[in-house]
Every structure is written in C-alpha cells, then in structure tokens.
Design a protein that fits this description.
A hairpin with a 5-residue loop joins β5 and β6. This protein folds into two domains: about 210 residues, no CATH class; about 200 residues, Immunoglobulin-like (Sandwich). The protein is about 25% helix and about 20% strand. The protein starts with a helix and ends with a strand. The structure holds heme C (5 copies). One heme C binds next to α4, α5 and α8.
Length: about 450
C-alpha cells in the first residue's frame, strides 16, 4: 500500500471515531424525549377536578408555594421583567428562558405553544403551576442525576403514586411506582444547570452528599410527612400514614424557625473598659436535609448579628472576626453596590447597581455569591458564569464564629448582655425594593437567638 492510501485510511478511521464519539456524547446530553410543546393543554386535567375527590390534599397543596410557582409575585416579576426582556436582548437566552416554565409551570411548557405563556392575570392553565397532574403523571427521570425538568411525563388517565390503593378510583387508573419515594423525583426540578454549565440549584445533590442520604431520610419525610388519620380520597378509609402534601419550606416562618441552633459564650466573664473579650458563636444546622440556604441561593441570605447592651441600655454592634479564607469579603456585610447586570433587561445602560446586602456592616453572612460574566454579583441565575465561596451551613454542620470586642471606654459598669441573632431573608432587600417586589419576600425572618452576659468592672 502506498503511503497516500495509508494516511487516507488513518484519516477515515479517525473521522469515524470522532463521529461515533460525538454521537455517544450527544446521546448522553440529550434527554430521550423533549417535552416542550409536545402535547396540548387540553390533554391535562385541572387540579380543581382532583379536588372533588381529594379535597384534603388539594387544600394542603393550594397553600404551598408549588401551587403558585407561576403566579407568585416575585416569580412573575423575575420572569416577565428580567428573564423575558433579557432573552429579547440576547437571543441565545431564549431557550433557557422558555425553560423557566419547564419547572414553574410544566403544563404550559408541555401543553402550551406560546412562550412566554399568558400573564397570571389572564388566568390561563399556566396558573396551575406545579399541579397534581405534573407530579402524578411523572414516570421517571430521564437523566442521572436528574436536573432541568428531566421528568418523563405522558398525559392520560393513568396516575402514578407510591401507595397501593385500597379502593379503585372511579376517575382514573392507578399504577404504583417506587420512583415517587425517591429524591430523584424532586431532583427533576430541584437541581438546575444553567447555560454556562453552572449548577445554580442543587438541593437534591446537596442532600445526596449529606448525612440524610446515608440514613434514608428523603425529601418527602420532611416536606410531606406521614400522618393520620387522614382521608386521602373521599371513597377510601382514612390512613394513619397518609402523605401530607405540605411542601412547606423557606416561605413558612415556622419551618425556618429553629432550623439553626445558636449558642454564644465569652472567653472571660469580667472585663474592664479597654480590655478585649472574645465571644464565640456556634451555629448548628439541626433541621435541614440540604444546605441552609438552598434552592434559590442567588436570592437568599442568612446573617448573624451580635450586639452588646450595657447596664445603662447603650447598644454596641460587634463585627465578626475575619477567618482569612478566599472570597470571605462576600460573607461579611459591607457597603458595596452590586447586581449591575439587571441594567441589561431593564434597559438601563449605565445602571450603577444597588446595595449588595442591605444589612448592618460587619455581620457574618451565610451564602454563596453568584457572579455574572463580568465578575459582578448577580441574582439572575441564568446569567451566572461562576459561583464564589460556598459559606452556607450544611446538614448537621456546625459553624463557629468569633467576635473580638474591645470594651468601649464609655461602657457602664455592671452587667453587659450580648445577644447573637440569626436572621434570614428570601430576597436581599435592596433588590426587592428596587424591583418593587412586595415586602413579604424581603421581610426579616427570625431563625434563632441566644444571649450571654459579662460583668463590666468600673
Ligand atoms: C371521582 C373521584 C376521583 C377523582 C376526580 C380523582 N381521584 Fe384520585 N383517587 C380516587 C380514589 C377513590 C383513590 C383511591 C384512594 C385509596 O384507596 O388510597 C384515588 C387515588 C389516587 C392516587 C393514588 C393514591 C393511592 O392511594 O394509591 C393518585 C396519585 C390520585 N388519585 C391522583 C388523582 C389526580 C391527580 C386527580 C386529578 C387529575 C384525581 N386523582 C382525581 C378518586 C378520585
Ligand atoms: C410536587 C409533587 C406533587 C404534587 C404537586 C402533588 N403530589 Fe400527590 N404525591 C406526591 C408524592 C411524591 C406522593 C407519594 C409519596 C410516597 O408514596 O411516599 C404523593 C402521594 C399522593 C397520594 C397518596 C397519598 C398517600 O396517602 O400515600 C394522593 C392521593 C395524591 N398524592 C394526590 C394528589 C393530588 C390530588 C394533588 C393535587 C392537589 C397532588 N397529589 C399533588 C407528589 C405530589
Ligand atoms: C415539576 C417541578 C417540581 C417538582 C417535581 C418538585 N418541585 Fe418543589 N418546587 C418547584 C418550584 C418551581 C418551586 C418554587 C415555587 C416558588 O415559586 O416559590 C418549588 C418549591 C418547593 C419548596 C419551597 C417552598 C417554600 O416555602 O419556599 C419545597 C419545600 C419543595 N418545592 C419541595 C419539593 C419536594 C419535596 C418535591 C418532591 C416530592 C418537589 N418539590 C418536587 C418545582 C418542583
Ligand atoms: C431532614 C429534613 C429535610 C430533608 C430530608 C429535606 N429538607 Fe428541604 N427543608 C427542610 C427545612 C427544615 C427547611 C426550611 C429551612 C430552609 O429554608 O432551608 C427546608 C427548606 C427547603 C426548601 C426551601 C429552601 C430555601 O432556602 O429556599 C426547598 C426548596 C427544599 N427544602 C427542598 C427539599 C428537597 C428537594 C429535598 C430532598 C432532596 C429536601 N428538601 C430534603 C428540611 C428538610
Ligand atoms: C430546573 C427547574 C427550574 C428552572 C429551569 C427554573 N426554576 Fe425557578 N425555581 C425552581 C425551584 C425548585 C425553586 C425553589 C427554590 C427554593 O425554594 O429555594 C425556584 C425558585 C425561583 C424563584 C424564587 C421564588 C421565591 O418565591 O422565592 C424565582 C423568582 C424563580 N425561580 C424564577 C425562575 C426564572 C425566571 C427561571 C428561568 C430563567 C427559572 N426560575 C428557572 C426551579 C426552576
């Protein structure tokens, strides 16, 4: 064989390898079935229909955020005022922004033809949000790990569930499916990878690497606890282990309260003005199965505020001691402007940004910052090119913070009380105020507090 044919064969072999490899990669990356606009709205049933026989579960669900995932004010504002105009300005964002609906209103994503779907005020079927049908038509996850609405859903009169029923339903067939008892079921929407390949939501992945996965404690055990006697359908008997559809999370102050336990102690009990006292705060994550905060991490902050009150009632703010890790500046509140990338969708080319944190300077913040392609902090998860230091509190993790406090010369002699308070906010307030998000989304939620005291010597 001539050298020419040899190299031709080599080239052909090389080429077919590339084709085979890229085909294999394509298979792995593409879900088996793209559900976008695959069916019609009318192929699905409304939750109102399920209510006639499942009134208890319907009323529980209707109070949970998942029944409002499309209609809730902040979702409407972020989608219609930021995401949709951003995609209009940058056409390669169109697909990911249509994809918001894959998790927030799957029936409009699968059954609708119009993107964006009608506004909530138009009362279309998009308002069903994450409805009974969405979950009870789900058969499996199409990817491993599950993420970005990787559910496999087919409309029809066969509903899936974990339990084997005691009576037949006159309205639909029931097929039991163990997938309902897994965390992957929730991970279909509670893990999200954005166009930059960044995991902007990873609640199920956080769970998987934490202690609860090893113990077999699933999302359902904390967010849909078993209880009874409870009638899950009108024609059946009450069960003592019915799955209560609470889905309570960050919007339920009672769920958030006490999540982290807080204790504070001084290194010495008596001090004179001018002397330094070191206060140590331990924060133990007792309640969450994932990190705290989790989910919409770009919006959420938890922060530790420590204040001393002397015997005359004068209040002093304590600054957290720096630990010196990379990116720490994002975990200590400061006086900075951020979130300038909102200027693009809002049509404000010279937008200077708003205050990064909006809380007292020097407090410790438990968060993970998200950065836009220009390295500025962002709350637009789809525009996140990079994440910063992950300084959230993991499941059963304890974080220890120190506050070195030089007793001020004007501190009154007597008992000085020092109080540590852990607060939580769904959406940083300067952003909420700027975008006119109703105040309940940025109100301060009290997680926990603890006090100690020292004696100030004259
Ligand atoms: C005409 C009454 C009726 C309507 C309407 C109805 N169901 Fe049911 N459903 C039942 C009955 C009865 C059962 C059996 C309950 C049992 O024995 O546990 C049942 C069971 C189920 C189960 C399985 C739970 C189990 O106990 O195994 C699911 C899931 C379910 N229904 C979903 C739905 C959804 C979703 C809708 C609305 C699209 C709906 N149902 C509408 C009567 C109804
Ligand atoms: C976010 C997903 C989700 C939504 C929304 C949802 N369910 Fe469920 N439902 C589940 C899961 C998961 C289970 C099974 C848990 C298990 O078996 O461990 C379940 C169980 C049930 C059961 C059986 C309860 C039992 O006692 O075991 C019924 C009936 C039911 N759902 C009906 C409904 C109806 C009606 C709606 C709407 C009003 C609804 N579900 C909305 C996820 C969902
Ligand atoms: C089809 C997508 C989808 C699936 C499946 C899903 N979720 Fe959600 N979930 C959402 C969306 C979207 C939100 C955000 C709602 C909002 O706009 O505030 C949410 C919010 C929540 C919240 C936060 C509530 C709050 O008070 O802030 C909890 C808790 C939750 N889901 C639990 C679960 C659990 C447990 C499962 C599995 C049994 C599950 N979800 C499955 C889409 C889904
Ligand atoms: C051991 C109990 C436990 C388990 C297991 C658990 N959670 Fe939670 N979850 C909580 C508590 C407590 C909160 C309230 C504090 C908070 O907001 O993080 C919460 C909050 C949430 C929130 C709102 C978080 C936020 O900051 O916006 C979501 C979403 C959520 N859980 C989803 C899930 C999913 C999905 C799983 C399974 C992969 C899961 N949870 C497993 C206890 C649990
Ligand atoms: C892979 C599923 C998924 C995709 C895609 C998705 N979301 Fe979400 N979104 C969720 C879940 C789950 C939560 C709840 C997390 C939590 O409670 O912390 C959420 C929370 C939110 C919240 C906060 C709600 C609140 O009340 O605090 C907003 C706003 C939001 N999403 C908007 C969007 C927009 C806009 C897009 C598209 C650019 C989008 N989401 C894409 C699953 C998704």
């Amino acid at each position: 064989m001539s050298r020419k044919t040899n190299s031709l064969i080599l080239m052909l072999v090389g080429f077919s390898c590339i084709v085979i490899l890229s085909l294999a990669a394509f298979r792995l990356l593409t879900p088996q079935e793209d559900l976008k606009s695959k069916y019609d709205y009318k192929d699905f049933e409304s939750a109102k229909k399920c209510r006639s026989c499942h009134p208890g579960i319907y009323e529980q669900w209707s109070q949970a955020m998942m029944s409002q995932a499309y209609t809730h004010h902040w979702d409407e504002i972020e989608y219609f005022n930021l995401a949709v105009p951003h995609a209009a300005a940058k056409p390669d964002l169109k697909d990911p922004v249509d994809g918001c609906n894959g998790c927030h209103t799957p029936l409009a994503f699968i059954g609708g033809k119009q993107f964006p779907p009608p506004r909530p005020s138009e009362k279309s079927m998009a308002n069903e949000s994450v409805s009974c049908e969405v979950c009870h038509l789900t058969q499996s996850a199409q990817t491993d790990p599950p993420f970005n609405f990787s559910y496999l859903i087919r409309p029809g009169m066969t509903k899936f569930a974990g339990r084997t029923p005691t009576v037949e339903s006159p309205a639909h067939k029931i097929v039991t499916n163990d997938f309902f008892r897994t965390t992957e079921f929730c991970g279909n929407c509670h893990n999200e990878k954005n166009p930059f390949g960044v995991w902007v939501k990873s609640t199920q992945l956080e769970w998987k690497e934490g202690p609860y996965a090893k113990e077999g404690v699933h999302c359902q055990d904390c967010h849909m606890p078993k209880g009874g006697p409870f009638l899950n359908a009108l024609m059946t008997k009450p069960y003592n282990d019915a799955r209560i559809h609470l889905f309570h999370g960050a919007h339920d102050p009672g769920k958030v309260r006490g999540t982290i336990e807080v204790r504070i102690h001084p290194d010495i009990r008596e001090a004179e003005p001018g002397e330094s006292v070191i206060f140590t705060v331990a924060l133990f994550n007792q309640k969450t199965g994932h990190k705290f905060p989790t989910g919409s991490v770009e919006d959420r902050i938890a922060w530790l505020n420590v204040e001393a009150t002397d015997s005359k009632g004068k209040v002093y703010h304590l600054n957290v001691d720096k630990k010196g890790f990379v990116g720490e500046e994002y975990t200590i509140s400061g006086d900075y402007l951020a979130y300038q990338d909102m200027g693009v969708p809002l049509g404000l080319p010279d937008f200077k940004g708003v205050q990064r944190d909006g809380i007292p300077t020097g407090d410790r913040i438990f968060r993970m910052p998200y950065f836009d392609p220009e390295g500025r902090m962002t709350i637009m998860q789809w525009n996140t090119a990079k994440q910063g230091v992950d300084y959230r509190i993991g499941p059963r993790e304890t974080k220890v913070e120190k506050f070195t406090f030089r007793i001020p010369n004007d501190a009154a002699p007597g008992v000085m009380t020092v109080k540590a308070v852990l607060n939580y906010q769904l959406l940083v307030k300067p952003v909420a105020d700027f975008l006119k998000v109703p105040p309940d989304e940025s109100e301060i939620k009290h997680v926990n507090d603890h006090s100690t005291s020292i004696q100030i010597l004259p």
